[in-house]
């Protein structure tokens, strides 16, 4: 049977298309032992993995060969090839956890040859050990059988080569002999690796923290010594007793991409002891107790029994909006809205313009007034009209100074683009009051509807935090939206941003650029701001720095340029939860009216949160360019922890009370010099919600 398999393999290789060969073609002949590989085999090369079209073709035609190539790469200890295959093919396509005809998996070969880098790469992809090895005895017997059969086959082929006269058949048998000799050495090396290995040491460290009022998070690190065998899984055990008798539960972690585990379903206020042990092919090693030795599931809210600040708020707002819509349902404002002309002259002008430009109602130039522009971008391209202009519509040609309250009102409207028609109908009824503010806001809604109609899309994106003004009396409100799909729009097309910037003919001077020229010049900055403002923080507990400055009509908040939707911050730790015990310590520190600690004390040196805060405060002061000695006058906000969902929470660091908000003209000693910007408070709140 083995001879027939070897002949099948040689026939397949004879039909192999031309391509780069392996460094040692003889080593590749080991595949004669697997019935899976009786197919045309093509070696992997870098070119076959680069081209997208070639890659898809290869997926459909050579899935068996990808499995063969993975076995070959593992046995040849080719880490680069293993990583390449794991990157371009899924575990299912590689048949990663299906044993071959010898009952082996790629991970078995890696751990028994003690190839730690390859074993780790396989483990992080989800590789498992062969299910055939149910005990140490079964693994030892299996390896002994493989070695014995390979040795027997080598002896048979050697006798045939010695006794037969030189011919083509003899040459083929010599190739088979070399392949079997290599296979024999591999099995011997695997058997020796198994025999010399011992169970692993205990994990080098196990950290226990409180994840919530019903869960604990366990983080562990691999043993300092694995005793010549790769650790393939870990076991987490927990109990209410320090002797772990009785044992309340255990969990086996065999996905080692993240070395942590969350124990769920625990009782709040109950102390739990936790330990972790490591496993390799020789069995389980000794357990390592956690530090601290036990933890009590809890949350800072349990200190005084307060409920989450935002509980039910979203539902209440939805209910309120539904009530408002119900009231207006049978009102005259619910009837179709007719756009009323601003004046006879203005209406005729618009009509004549429409006759000469039937395909577009976008503006090319600004003539002193209030305007709306929508920036849609995808990669390095931007949406423009057929005249290669950024889409601009007029809001009001008699409005020369934009009140901040009108602008902030528009930013709130941007949260409900789909309700513009309904808002227009409601505001129409209110025009009888002849309020200047209502007239302006109604015109804003008209302009938004016009932009939506011309583009054929409702969602215009996010309003940029400040309008663009020029000395000619133009004010330009900018909305930004990233398009991630091949979406089509009406009356517009895509062009590269660089082409738009270089091709525009400016009608203003460099000393006094128009609002449109200013927009084009600063376009990359605005797009970068928009992308950064949508970034989310990774899970964890953060220390934020709250600094405000006031003006006549607004309050602005200091934020980093790289993440403008979040306060200036540094990460304290990956666990976002503040336990009840930690919150009690923070309350005691606040009640003593002591400055924020920057130097350790003997009685606090064992408090993990104190040590984490020390590091975070120093890092935050360095970030905002404030001398560390000035932090002695700062305070931690001790009224609550700011929770942003279940995965991100903030503690706030405040300057002295007189300097939290700087008034106009006041000396501002606690504001960094570069890398930051100030946003209107309402804009910041909207960005935070997004």
How does this model look, in words?
With 690 residues, this protein is α+β, with helices and mostly antiparallel strands. The protein folds into four domains: 57-196, Alpha Horseshoe (Serine Threonine Protein Phosphatase 5, Tetratricopeptide repeat); 207-298, Immunoglobulin-like, CATH 2.60.40; 369-534, Nucleoside Triphosphate Pyrophosphohydrolase, CATH 3.90.79; 540-593 and 601-689, Nucleoside Triphosphate Pyrophosphohydrolase. The chain has 20 helices and 24 strands. The strands form five sheets. Strands 9, 10, 11, 12, 13, 14 and 15 form a seven-stranded mixed beta sheet that branches. Strand 6 (272-280) and strand 7 form a beta hairpin. The longest helix has 29 residues, at 168-196. Residues 1-25 are annotated as: Disordered.
The CATH architecture of the largest domain is Alpha-Beta Complex
Radius of gyration equals: 35 Å
Average pLDDT, all residues: 80
* Strand segment count: 24
Overall helicity:
25-40%
Taking the alpha carbons of the first and last residues, their distance comes to 66 Å
How much of the sequence lies in strands comes to 15-25%
Number of helices: 20
Give the CA-based shape: extended
Number of structurally distinct domains:
4
Low-confidence stretches: 1-50, 333-360
Given the helix and strand composition, which structural class is it? alpha+beta
The CATH class name of the largest domain reads Alpha Beta
CATH topology-level name of the largest domain: Nucleoside Triphosphate Pyrophosphohydrolase
Largest sheet: 7 strands, mixed
């Amino acid at each position: 049977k083995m001879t027939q398999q070897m002949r099948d393999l040689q026939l397949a290789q004879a039909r192999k298309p031309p391509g780069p060969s392996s460094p040692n073609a003889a080593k590749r002949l080991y595949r004669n032992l697997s019935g899976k590989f009786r197919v045309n085999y093509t070696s992997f090369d870098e070119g076959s993995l680069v081209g997208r079209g070639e890659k898809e073709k290869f997926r459909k035609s050579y899935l068996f060969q990808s499995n063969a190539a993975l076995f070959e790469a593992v046995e040849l200890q080719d880490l680069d090839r293993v990583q390449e295959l794991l990157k371009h093919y899924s575990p299912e396509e590689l048949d990663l956890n299906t044993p071959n005809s010898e009952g082996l998996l790629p991970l078995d070969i890696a751990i028994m040859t003690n190839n730690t880098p390859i074993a780790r790469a396989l483990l992080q992809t989800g590789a498992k050990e062969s299910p055939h090895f149910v005990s140490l005895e079964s693994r030892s017997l299996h390896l002994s059988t493989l070695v014995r059969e390979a040795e027997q086959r080598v002896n048979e082929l050697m006798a045939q080569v010695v006794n037969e006269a030189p011919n083509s058949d003899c040459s083929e048998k010599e190739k088979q002999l070399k392949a079997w000799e290599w296979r024999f050495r591999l099995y011997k090396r695997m058997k020796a690796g198994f025999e010399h290995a011992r169970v692993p040491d205990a994990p080098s460290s196990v950290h226990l923290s409180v994840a919530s009022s019903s869960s604990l998070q366990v983080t562990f690190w691999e043993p300092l010594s694995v005793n010549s065998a790769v650790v393939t899984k870990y076991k987490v055990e927990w109990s209410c007793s320090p002797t772990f008798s009785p044992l309340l539960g255990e969990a086996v972690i065999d996905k080692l991409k993240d070395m942590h585990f969350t124990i769920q379903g625990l009782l709040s206020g109950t102390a739990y002891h936790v330990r972790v042990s490591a496993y390799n092919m020789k069995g389980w090693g000794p357990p390592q107790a956690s530090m601290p030795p036990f933890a009590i599931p809890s949350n800072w809210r349990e200190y005084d029994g307060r409920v989450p600040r935002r509980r039910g708020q979203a539902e209440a707002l939805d209910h309120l909006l539904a009530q408002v819509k119900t009231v207006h349902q049978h009102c005259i404002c619910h009837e179709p809205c007719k756009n009323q002309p601003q004046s006879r002259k203005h209406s005729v002008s618009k009509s004549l313009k429409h006759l000469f430009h039937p395909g577009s109602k976008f503006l090319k130039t600004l003539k002193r007034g209030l305007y709306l522009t929508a920036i849609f971008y995808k990669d390095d391209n931007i949406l423009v009209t057929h005249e290669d202009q950024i889409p601009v519509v007029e809001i009001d040609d008699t409005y020369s100074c934009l009140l901040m309250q009108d602008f902030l009102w528009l930013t709130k409207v941007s949260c409900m683009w789909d309700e513009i028609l309904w808002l227009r109908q409601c505001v129409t009824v209110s025009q009888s009051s002849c309020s200047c503010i209502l007239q302006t806001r109604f015109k804003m809604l008209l302009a938004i509807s016009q932009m939506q109609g011309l583009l054929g899309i409702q969602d215009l994106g996010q309003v940029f935090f400040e309008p663009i003004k020029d000395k000619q009396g133009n004010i330009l409100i900018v909305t930004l939206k990233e398009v991630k799909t091949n979406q089509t729009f009406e009356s517009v097309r895509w062009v590269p941003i660089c082409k738009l910037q270089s091709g525009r003919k400016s009608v203003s001077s460099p000393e006094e650029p128009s609002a449109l020229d200013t927009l084009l010049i600063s376009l990359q900055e605005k797009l970068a701001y928009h992308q950064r403002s949508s970034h989310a923080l990774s899970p964890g507990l953060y220390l934020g720095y709250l600094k405000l400055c006031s003006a006549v009509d607004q309050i602005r908040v200091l934020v980093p340029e790289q993440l403008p939707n979040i306060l200036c911050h540094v990460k304290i730790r990956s666990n976002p939860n503040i336990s009840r015990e930690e919150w009690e310590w923070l309350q005691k520190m606040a009640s003593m009216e002591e400055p924020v600690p920057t130097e350790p004390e003997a009685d606090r040196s064992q408090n993990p949160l104190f040590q984490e805060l020390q590091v975070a405060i120093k890092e935050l002061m360095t970030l905002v360019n404030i001398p560390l000695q000035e932090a002695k006058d700062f305070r931690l906000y001790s009224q609550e922890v700011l929770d942003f969902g279940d995965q991100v929470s903030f503690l706030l660091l405040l300057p002295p009370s007189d300097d939290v908000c700087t008034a106009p003209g006041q000396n501002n000693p606690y504001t960094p010099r570069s890398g930051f910007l100030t946003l209107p408070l309402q804009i910041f709140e909207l960005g935070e919600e997004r």
